[in-house]
Amino acid sequence: MITVVGSINLDIVATGPALPRPGETVGGARLARHPGGKGANQALAARRLGAEVQLVGAVGADDMADEALKLLQSGGVDLSQVAHVNGETTGVALIAVDATSGENLIVVCPGANHVLRPDDVADLPIEHMMGVLEVPVPVLLAAAEKATGFVSLNLAPAMTIPDQLMTMADLLSVNETEAETYGDRLMTCGALVAVSLGAEGAVLYKDGKEIARAAPPKVQVVDTVGAGDTFTAALTVALIEGKSPDDALAFAVTAGALACTRPGAQPSLPQRRDVDALALGGK
After folding, report:
1. What are the sequence ranges of the domains in the chain?
2. Can you state the percent helix, strand and coil of the chain, rounding each to 5?
3. 246 counts as catalytic
């Protein structure tokens, strides 16, 4: 069982002909609403890739909560540890997507995600654990401390965090920008470190040395929202299953690439059979 400690959002997505520059208004966009949040995305991604998953998180007591939880519920993620908090709104991500390149800009309104506390995991048995930085660091520390198995932390969005959190992890995942922010701390904490490189794939490091590199299959990019969360979940699932670093990374970049072929974060998350059909020749 993987326990994901993370954010639950409703994504409000505007897909238009270009991303706006500062002070610029871009018209002609299409509006869509999708369930999202890095924690929820990674929980559903791991579930679709074959893991048993429970999610620890919070939503508001509002009309957006059911919409934000809909695909998690239908997808078989255990939501018994998700709190509905009076006086808070469900988290919202405002996303602008370039219809040509699939690139995006995101502004997050955390809402109920910021009310999670260490007490929320105090009595919860945790085997494997995944966490993201869209919820308070103290609850991630408490969950990682309780975990008896593999601990995977997606250090996104980049922020100041204690060394203790890094040293508790078996796997840290970041993109190139986040890797620059954390610098040498990533490579000296003892964890496996996965750096995603977008269309170029990803690299896996151990103690500062590259141990695996993988390039994704060529796909028609529609929307990159959720690709990073898919990559992180897939790599975590593969390593828990005992795949080698090379095979795990190849599996993860393939899953991430497939997530780019459909719009929306959670609607685009791939099924295990589809990833296996491409990664390592289905082996």
Report:
1. 2-8+37-90+113-282
2. 35, 30, 35
3. no
pLDDT digit string, tens, across residues 32-63: 898 999 999 999 999 999 999 999 999 999 99
CATH superfamily membership of 2-8+37-90+113-282: Ribokinase (3.40.1190.20)
Spatial CA neighbour of 194 closest among 180, 177, 181, 213: 213
- DSSP letter for each residue of 83-125: EEETT-PPEEEEEEEETTT--EEEEEE-GGGGG--GGGGTT--
- Tell me the per-residue pLDDT of 151-191, one tens digit each, with 9 for 90 and over: 999 999 999 999 999 999 999 999 999 999 999 899 888 89
Decide which of 223 and 86 is more confident: 86
Q: How many CA atoms lie within 13 A of 111 on its CB side?
A: 30
| Residue from 229, 246, 247, 276 carrying the catalytic annotation | 229
Binding site listing for ATP: 175, 196-201, 228-229
**Chain position carrying tokens 């975590």:** 236
C-alpha to C-alpha distance for 175 and 157, rounded to whole angstroms: 10
**Which tokens in the block code for residue 258?**
């497939």
Residues placed in the known binding site for substrate: 9-11, 37-41, 134, 229
Binding positions = 9-11, 37-41, 134, 175, 196-201, 223, 225, 228-229, 259, 262, 264, 268
